[in-house]
Amino acid sequence: MVPCHATSLRPCQLKHLICIASVTGRLPERDVMILWLTHPIGIRVTELALLEVADVLYSSSAIRW
Fold first, then answer.
1. % of the chain with per-residue pLDDT over 90
2. Phi-psi region of 46 (alpha: psi -120 to 50; beta: other; left: phi over 0)
3. Sign of CA dihedral 49, 14, 22, 41
């Protein structure tokens, strides 16, 4: 039996995906942000879908750290 290993993108592959996402599709800014949040940060797509603006920004529009 072959062990199952999780695969991951190499940095150059992620950069390529971000370049493609930034110039294609109806909402390129959204698509790029999804890639940045799901890959390097490790947030799952379901977790991302549940995020609300108040989870990320203060009412002053400053980013929550």
1. 42
2. alpha
3. positive
Tens digits of residue pLDDT in 29-49: 999 988 988 888 888 889 989
Q: Which residue has the tokens 């190499």?
A: 10
Whose structure tokens read 């920004």? 57
In DSSP notation, 18-36 reads HHHHHHSSS-HHHHHHHHH
Whole-number pLDDT of residue 42: 83
The answer to whether the CB of 26 falls within 8 A of the CB of 5 is: no
CB-CB neighbours of 22 under 10 Å: 13
Q: Where along the chain do its domains lie?
A: 11-56
The pLDDT of residue 3: 65
DSSP 8-state assignment for residue 4: P
